[in-house]
Each structure stands twice: as C-alpha cells, then as structure tokens.
Predict the structure.
Amino acid sequence: MLAAVAPVRAASAAPPPSGPVELGYCGGDDWEPTVAADGAGRIYVLITHYRGDATCDPAAGLNNSRIMIEVSSDGGSTFSAPRVVSDTPGGIAYPSQADPAIAVDPASGDVYVSFLAYDLSGGHTDVYVAKSTDLGATFAAVKVNGHDCKNCDHPKTLVSGNDVYVAYSQATNHFISVSTDGGATFTETDVLRAGVVGFSEGGVLDSRGNAWFAWGDCETSSCKGVPAADYRVSETLAGTSTTSFADVATGDQGPDCPFSSCGFSFFGPQDDIGIDTGGTLYLLWQQGQDPAKRGSPPIINLSRCAANCMSAAGWSFVGRVDDKNASGCAASACYALFPAIVGGSAGQVHVTWFDDRNGQPIDHTNGWNVWYRTSTNGGSTWTTAGQRMSAFMPAESQSGSTGFLFPYGDYMRVALDPGCGNKPVLVWGEGHDWVGGPSAPGHINFRSLC
C-alpha cells in the first residue's frame, strides 16, 4: 500500500515553451493519463502502465497494468521517475489496475488518487482511493465501493478539506461514495438508476463545496442509435450524499473504430464539466455533425449554466467548440473526439480535444493531434483558432510530422497551474492503435502553457 517517489529527471529534457515533453517510459506502454497541480509549483501526473519495449528501458517491462505517478516540483520542467501508487491495494494482488483520477486538496496539499482494481474471479472490480500526505511520496489505499462492483467504471474524484467524493458507474447504477474524514472511510450511495451503461466523465467543486459531476450515459447496451447517449450533470451537496440530476443534452452514436479491436464505444459519446470563478458551469460534449445520422463525424459542443443548474431550462447551448474544418478535412470528414475543459476566471474556459484533420489520407489512423482553444466570454467567441498542442516527437515511434497515428486511451486531461497564473497544463496519450503492447507502445506527453 506504500510507494516511494524519488526525485529524478524526466525521461526527456524539459520542453521549450512551444513543445511537449515525454513522460512515462521511453519504451512505453503508457495509457490514459491525468493531471493536477497545486499552488506551490508541484504538478502530479498519473498514467496506467502496461509492459512496453524493454530494449529502450528495462523498467518499461515491469509493473504491468499498474497506476503510476510522476511528480514535478518545478512547474513541469522536470519530473520524478514513474513509481507505482499502490501495488496491492487492500493487501490484494489484483492482476489489473486502470482509470486513474487525481485531486489535490488546496488547503492541505494532500493528494488523492482513485483507480479501478480488477481481473479477479468473476469480473469483480473494486474502486480505490489512495491518499498521500507527503506530496505524493507515499500512498495508503482504501476501498470505496461497498458491494460486489462487477464492471464498475470511470471513477472521478473531488476533494474539499475532509470531504472526498468519488463518482463511478455500474451499468444503470450511478454511484457517489463520500468520505467526511479525509478519505479514511467511505459511504457508497446509488444516487440514480437510469440509462443502460453509465459513465462518470469529470467533476468540479463550486464555492460552497458542492460536488458536480458530468455523466455520459448510453441509452442502449451498444451505445448505438440516434440519440445514443444522455449527457447529465449531478450535484452532490457539500458533506453529504444528497444528489440531484439534470439532463443537459443528447449525443449520437459515434463512428466505428478503424481497427478490429477497440474498447467499448471507443469513438462514442463523451462529455466533461468545468466551472469558472464566477460560478458558471460548462458542459463540453460530443455530437455527430449530422445529428440525424448514426456514426456521423463527431464535433464538440458547449453548453453553460449560471443559475438553476438542476433544471434543464437553466442550461443554454453556446455553440460548437472545435474548428476541425478550418483547414484540410474535406467536408469536415475528420473526427473531433475526447473533449476536456477547465474553467478559469469569470467567463474564461480552456478546452482541448483530439482531431485528425492532418491525416494524409483522412482514414483515422494518422494525422491525429491535440488541439486547444480558450475563451474569455464563456465560449461565445474564441480568442484564436484551434492551436496544435502536440508535436513531432522523434523518439516516439507513433509520432510523425503531421501528427500521431492514434489516440491512446479514451480521455485526455487539462488542468490549471495556480503556481503559474492559472495557465493550463495538459496530458494525453499517443499510440499506434488501440491494442498497444511492447511492439506498438503508446506514450504519454505533457505540455505546460506557462
């Protein structure tokens, strides 16, 4: 249950302001990162590591299917080597871990890491929260689910002092587990039964300490149809499990993955939630560019709410966020996917997504990049066209001059760095295909806009 994090340099040198840096192992195989920052220059990045190419780095062949952490104490210029957060949570040698999320308490600096632990007999899955009180040096893990959580998925975590909230799902069940003693114990509540396959996608705290989560819930077991998913927002009152829901939008069936092996609804509907300092909530959500057609090339939309956000009437549609059709991408045939958002000062939002507008040809197996936009008026207008955040990484086999081959992991993350004027920091995964492995490892890249 304990893991040490030693301060050493990152695998790659610190990037110039215009470029990203590789985290994880030079030999991969690293997947689905997330990021958080405190106000003292520390940045925390989590990855799920699978066995990679050990000829590049012998350590890449170790710690298969484990959540690992890298810590920077200088705003992202250098990072510690990746170390396991909790190898045997609860004293159990689970074969697999995945789906990390992270939250830092701004008052104490305590770090909370949630993840799935699974692959025991019968498909049993447990949700854990590992807490560090020494800036990510060591962790102690506690199980938060209170029942046989077969196939639980997508835990997302928020912390406010002693109050810790973890949202996750199991089929139609939407769970919130709450701790009021700083993560020592949790109480699980099934706060909603709706849809067929639920997914918690992101969370924010408001100024009163209430916890808000975004959900992307499939209406069918295959997440296919028009519409295919309901985008919901939940509010959990501070220090309680009392939770209400509002339906905000619907999303259509996503296009098929171009490979024979991909995860469930890999290009399917997704959303994310942000909040600005004025208290306005934002929901970033994926939709087909032709809402009446299954599998239509996806776009990214934005809705917002300044008051009465537990009513659908409190939410208004703002407009489309991505600009994948700005250049290339004939007939907007490329895909905009995996939206992420974070709110800043009043009216300010930062958004990111993947799209493959640089594909040559556009066949969704090349030309992928991470794109970024920001707005100072709640998304009504944008300060620039989409800016490319990813770059050619010569040491990474999936990378090319026009972009990388395929998104690696079904989400990316963006956070604000309070130690640098609340400018964004981003992490994402790049791969060859969905499967990865030692012969086609994925890599994690980090970028700070400080």
Q: What stands out?
A: Residues 1-16 have pLDDT under 50 and may be disordered.
